[in-house]
TrEMBL record:
Any single Gene Ontology cellular-component annotation: plasma membrane
GP-PDE domain residues: 227-481
Major location category of this protein: membrane
Name of protein: GDPD2 inositolphosphodiesterase
Species this protein is from: Ramphastos sulfuratus
Superkingdom per UniProt: Eukaryota
GO biological process: lipid metabolic process
Presence of the UniProt keyword Hydrolase in the record: yes
Locations listed in the record: Membrane
Amino acid sequence: MADPAGCCRPCATCLLCLYSCQWITAKKEKRKGLRTTKCDCSWFLFLFLTFLFTLVWLYFTIIILNDFHNFNEFIFKQRKLWLDWSLVLLIATAVLITYSATLLVLALCLQLCGQPLKLHWLHKTLLIFTALVVAAAFTGLGIKWAEEWRSAHISLQATGPFLHIGAVGGMTLLAWPLASFIYRTRSTGLRVSLLLVYCAVMIALYLAPLAITSPCIMEEKQLPPKPALVGHRGAPMLAPENTLMSLQKAVDCDVQVFETDVMVSADGVPFLMHDEELTRTTNVQAVFPERAALNSTAFNWTDLQQLDAGSWFLERRPFPTVQSLSASDRREVAKQRIPSLQQALEAAKQSNISIMFDLRPENHSDYQSFINATLEAILESGIPLQQVLWLPDGFREQVRQQAPGLQQVYGRKRLQNEEELLLHVNLPYQDMSSEEIRQYRQDNVSVNLYVVNQPWLFSVLWCSGVSSVTTNACQVLKEMKRPIWLLPSSTYLMIWIVTDSVSLLAILWAFVLLKYWLFSLSVPPESETDVLLTKINSLMQE
């Protein structure tokens, strides 16, 4: 078959070389016997499915970036190695998706040029490797980080309408190489099968918006108030977590609540610390190397005051924002020490923000004494009790009796027929649906969800009506004046209809145009001699 017009032989030859890893000339007489076999078609199908598989993993990678700091902390606890693994994941995923996408584009171009799809064994090996790597990544995600599947489900509320448009556009472009293959193949059964599959997929995509739901499909006037911000350990992207500097940076971000974690020293002083060990956020390995692996509660307050709680922030750079710190901020970071709960309460009182904390470790044998020491620090600080949000579940009734003014926050949902009235709940964002958030809001129950860092997630929860969110990125969410997108249902319906209509017309045009194009190529052009003889014959008749 002749090469289609516009597909020059040098271009077709280059495409063949890249796809087949060998110099196969695009001239028909030089590649006699080289045809696309059923095996070649199977490998093309495998290439297409691998590309889709990798594309889905790329989507998951972008979604789980919201929670990736937790993964970095987990790896540090296991290996004592700090690295921003999100960067490694993004680079690896980008390499895989670029490779599979490049091969797919080459294959589609070869099909349009009427060239054989002879995939080289090296590409076959790398494709299998790509599929196995992505499969292993999904398996690991399901085993070690199963809650991210729920994160992906929530993300569809933010991306569903746009994924629909992208999928329709991609499948519409696929109509051109598909039409070329259908018109060239001699197998009627294969033609019918491909057409049926393609039509079924397109019909499913055209009707997909019937299953797409998003709280952000609403009128502007229905939008709930912007959720309040709760600083997760302060402002950990701008200052070392659980320090007075982090608290002050959170205040500058207009957060309403400073969220932290409290432990109690060996001599009974409550202090701010998240990890059970001090190795991640202090220089304990340099000051007390023989005691570095001990629980934080094994140190007395005098020992804790000797530790540097800021320099690690500049050395390990837990967030990319560390690089943009000013010189004055860097000097302030180096001065940070572990603050006591008393100091944090006084700072919160002066800044007029609330403080919410959990008391760790819950399974400690002296946990009741930890409760007593913490309550004593709260009562001695003079902070208004309504500014303190109490999270620990242990000995809650005792806490109510000793400090009835504390706001009790629960880390669970309401139970059926529950007599106790829950006014505040604090849950992972994966644990509440948009419908539940709306119901709690109607019942005047304050809902705080954690940890929310990405604007797309904040937008979905904003549209759902959540009361507040705990975040590492208060400086980002502070600047958001409205959700990323907000569409009235009538506007979304119009976008849906226009997208599907344009797609259908483009598909019909592709099949009609390619039919006439290939038909014109099959008619041999008249030779110059025939044209000359025709003109001579015409002149003689005159």
